Amino acid sequence: MEETRDSIADIWGQRTGYEGQWPVRVDEHIEETPDQWVQSACVLCSNGCGIDIGVKDGRIVGVRGRAADRVNHGRLGPKGLHGWVANHSQDRLTKPLIRRNGKLEEATWDEAMSLIVQKSKELVEQHTSSSIGFYTSGQLFLEEYYALGVLGKAGLGTPHMDGNTRLCTATAAAALKASFGSDGQPGSYTDLDTTEAILHVGHNTASQQTVLWMRILDRLAGPNPPKLVVIDPRRTYTAEKATVHLAPRVGTNIPVMNGLLHLIIQAGHINQEYINTHTVGFEELKKIVEQWTPDRVERLSGVPADKLREAAHILGTCNTLVSSALQGVYQSMQATAAAVQINNLHLLRGLIGRDGCGIYQMNGQPTAQNTRECGADGDLPAFRNWGNQKHVQELADLWNVDIDKIPHWSPPTHAMQIWRYCETGSIKMLWISGTNPLVSMPDLDRIRKILKKKDLFVIVQDAFPTETTHYADVVLPAAIWGEKTGCFTNVDRTVHLSHKAIDPPGEARSDFDIFVDYSRRMDFRDKEGKPLLSSTWQVPEDAFNAWRECTRGRPCDYTGLSYAKLTGGSGIQWPCNDQYPDGAKHLYTDGVFCTDVDYCEDYGYDLETGAARTEDDYKLIDPKGKAFLKGVDYQPPHEEPDKDYPLWLTTGRLVYHFHTRTKTGRAKALQDAAPDAYVQLSAQDAARYGIAEGDMVEVQSRRGKVREPARIGNIEPGLVFLPFHYGYWDKDDRPRAANELTLTEWDPVSKQPHFKYAAVRIKKA
Ligand SMILES: Nc1nc2c(c(=O)[nH]1)N[C@H]1C(S)=C(S)[C@@H](COP(=O)(O)OP(=O)(O)OC[C@H]3O[C@@H](n4cnc5c(=O)[nH]c(N)nc54)[C@H](O)[C@@H]3O)O[C@H]1N2
Ligand SMILES: Nc1nc2c(c(=O)[nH]1)N[C@H]1C(S)=C(S)[C@@H](COP(=O)(O)OP(=O)(O)OC[C@H]3O[C@@H](n4cnc5c(=O)[nH]c(N)nc54)[C@H](O)[C@@H]3O)O[C@H]1N2
Ligand code: SF4
Ligand SMILES: [Mo]
């Protein structure tokens, strides 16, 4: 075995202080010397690092970073270096399974697909296509989502399709739409090389985007380090490096952000000319944030007034700024409203659309951007507006189907509602692909009950046996990264092509092949009677080429990209078209946003109530390309500590594991680095409850309980933290999934569930 560093002990590797360019450093981990290197990108977070897969005798034997890639210049983090080991895990699913007499038994593909098709046809006939729902992922490839999007909308015609992206980055999309009229991140990673200041809100970058953090660490180690403001209730790896760390109580992002905006406006640190020329809504925003004096913010959030002033001074005086928000915002109270305040900060100061200025309404999953782009979540493909008849007609023309085939009479059903329909019985077949809801959904007891229902037919398409496959009626074995070809897009709009390096194990098939096969067997046809997908979509590249046409003239314009162009060098940013043949670094360089009534992705929502605006409402306020400034007042969380459940719970991630650990738990180096869950609590709370480091602690909420060993320190008193990666543990019969405790509540605008707060009590077990 060879490694360029021990990335478990040395997560970020050696520093090279930034001096005018970010040097190449090729990180590598191989078990044997490969015969061949195959171009790909990493699928273990949204950073999208360029990676080469090393192959020998039909097996993956290692990986190395791609020196030429604009994202990572060769660097890789611990998950990127070790995660691939899971591809060769002994317990991969290699044959379809069908539940017979209560037990999952091996079956042929023909048997499994025939059963699914028979069930689908029966349901459509008896209950319409609205009795079928799809719950997909942020981890398949672009071509697969587009295939699913087309078959669901133009073939089956069901409004019930969404991704686990609802749990992940629905708020990123909602916040971008609310301010700029469309999804699409305005900035570029290269902004980090020159920016004067960085703001991370509820985003533990150091742990969750380790390679992006290397880029920041190299700036911090260079001659003109940026100032770093971190807003997180825990002292995370990211917070440790902060110039100013604000540690608010969970659920108080709005008071803190409003307080910052208030101080910045009051000090005159705004760009009035930019505001006048390029935005609408300034006076209303000002009126709302005015009430948030530092003392009032301190009373609600616990952030000392002086610290808030310090942070406001940095954010108000820097000439360039890169900001990011992630789950501490998106999964907490007033998610979209709080995320929008970060957009407001950049708009008020004119810090957008140029070098050194970027906003990341961050993604988490590697391909979440594509779920959203391709309409496999609750959106229409290429950021089209379901309320705009012209946009829907464009899709009908592209797919050659009648416009009424495409569900657009109401908003597409969001995932939380899809699960609700399964619970109440109107959805009778749920097709789950690339996600493990029995660890990742809130309130697991409820989800278990839903999946166990006799009248819900559950299909699970995954590569491994999981908590969720356990409850399936049909399990379809999927090929994963390295075993199939396709594209995906990272959070700074960089599109990568991942080539197939090896064959999948056994009879496992790619999601693309499975979806196209379903479409063929269902005999979905267009207006002229031609098969919908199967006549023209033989290989993923066919789907990619169809997708290119779908994006023409839309913000995510892929028309200049091709498999050939994406092969050999670096990933390339969209938009890539005649105007930007090599991709565009920044969106909105001219201060013109996607808000025109004919172009925007939606007509907007009331940030407080979630009430949707109609086309007619929007016409009255059409900002014709100006950005929206929107203010919101504070609302308290839906559950707060009381005498029975006196502590706050929050949940999140560890550097060594990805989500429900189906891959990282099967990579020995990563699993050994973080073998078990734990509960993190402050020294004060530990003393109060008589708990010592390593003691078993029972954590209970109104919905369930778990038992975890204690880890003490680096957290505010009154708050406990659980990593959410770990499912039920048979070994010592221990419930330990954080989601046994979380609640079924969601943001009114983005519909993203609230994983970041709940009231709990603890005791020594
Ligand atoms: N190692 C690793 N990396 C990953 C992943 C992984 O599973 N493991 N998953 C990927 C995915 S899909 C995602 S979505 C991202 C998530 O990346 P992050 O959002 O960075 O991860 P989390 O740990 O979920 O939450 C971030 C922080 O929010 C803080 N927080 C909790 N409540 C609040 C609040 O009310 N306000 C504020 N300001 N902060 C709060 C928590 O203390 C936590 O440190 O990571 C991606 N990268
Ligand atoms: N309490 C709490 N809960 C959370 C969060 C939190 O912070 N706190 N975060 C939420 C967030 S942001 C996210 S993103 C979710 C993640 O939650 P999940 O999506 O449930 O987590 P994963 O473990 O990534 O599940 C992906 C599944 O897809 C499979 N898979 C991988 N590649 C492929 C493929 O190519 N094809 C197919 N068919 N399958 C594949 C994997 O084996 C795995 O079983 O969890 C959410 N839940
Ligand atoms: S930062 Fe993300 S994309 Fe890059 S190597 Fe790590 S897990 Fe993979
Ligand atoms: Mo996520």
From TrEMBL:
Keywords in alphabetical order: 4Fe-4S, Iron, Iron-sulfur, Metal-binding
Location of the 4Fe-4S Mo/W bis-MGD-type domain: 35-91
GO biological process: cellular respiration
GO MF annotation list: 4 iron, 4 sulfur cluster binding; metal ion binding; molybdopterin cofactor binding; oxidoreductase activity
Protein name: Nitrate reductase
